[in-house]
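Supplementary Text 2. Reproducibility record for the structural model of the 481-residue chain.

All settings were left at their defaults, and a single model was retained for analysis rather than an ensemble. We include the record here because the model underlies the residue-level annotations in Supplementary Table 4.
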Amino acid sequence: MSTHNVLLLMSDQHSPYIMGCYGNDHASTPNLDALAARGTVFDAAYTPSPICVPARASLATGRFAHDTGNWDNAAPFTGTEAASWATRLGENGIPVTTFGKLHYRAPEDPTGFKNQVLPLHVKNGVGDLTQLLRGEQPPTPGLRAMVEQAGPGESDYTRYDRDVAVAAAEWIVQQPSSGQPWCAVVSLVSPHYPLIAPVEYYERFIKEDLPPRPGSDPRQWDHHPAPSEYRSKSCLDEPLDPETVRRATAAYYALVAFMDAQMGRVLKALKDSGQTENTTVIYLSDHGESLGSHGFWFKSTLHETAVRVPMIIADAAVKGRRRCTTPASLVDVFPTMLEQFGVPLSPEDKGIRGTSLRRLAREPEDPERQVFAEYHAVHSSSASFALRRGRWKLHHHVGHPSRLFNLVTDPDELHDLAGKPEFAPVLAQLEEDLSGIVPPHELDVTVKKDQAERMERAGGREAVLATQFAAPYTPVPAARA
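Retained model, structure tokens:
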């Protein structure tokens, strides 16, 4: 068994486009950039679903949402859907300690993550019931307000993230005396909304001329019916005024910088305790952030801004900076964790979807590796699926035309090629590849039936509608004494 430790650092809603090691000179991420400089950076990493609960279930289980049934933010992971990588490590004598946001159902569930410090789980153990309404959910002015309220200050989440970082740092420095390999997850909420950033960070970025995301100009917006529904239901059809965009962009950059500083606190504890050389560190996020591209804010679309995530793996065996162009996914974390500790897959794990990140980094690069994402949640009348292979990316929407993008010549997905005859063979092949992973229409029917049943158990449509004006954010646990 490996004597190495593993430290998984995780943020929420961090776009790789707002990060120094991914080429953004305006971003302030010195601690994560230093991690990237001594490790492997995955240039094309993806979430299996661009919303919190499904993404985090996939991260834990190495399976897609359609494998586990964690479709939306009202279907939190319980541990009964499939074993997590933490379960497998625990079975082999390697406990996993978590600090911060997990966004599962409850601490007592058999998720395998037994040692939870300051855990943040879905609200009331049920999550956001309005997600069950899908396309029937009324427009939500509160989403637009979340962007308009951006500015300086402190929120429950920034205070919580500081507490999480302090707790994790204190725990790490106590570990050398144990003499046993350890595994820890440090999961922060930042840069997730609210876009309220500590003053010292916000003031740095509000003074800068930050570039808008490509596709922000309303003349470039994606008007396909599926993403247009999301934008309309989010009350974002009317462009935000320039001052609001400036404040929201500055606040997001500031929250990224704040998050990086908290990760720096944890990494400093690792270094000061002399454990950097025998600890593999992984950094990633659950999904991205649109930040105004195509008029979208938040996540919940198939666009690169929402489905791309940062991903770095570093340990003493990696000398110097290396980029990996092989597409990667959060489902790759499950086999990575088992490989790091020399734990074999059990027979029940044969259905996992991923490949070890260490293997992807070691082997010849494979830009043709397929990666997949799906969406079955808020403000979506029907299921949406993304499939990338090489330069090509398919957007498949049940009930609406599919789209095709060339990510080499059109990385911002501004030009749909699906209607051009010369690209028909490429589109047909990707559609066939998608059908080999999941039957889109049949799955859409299955998911909607499940969501309707859960809505009835919650009291019916009117009862669920009545929850939409509740507090928009998951409450944080009480601070440690």
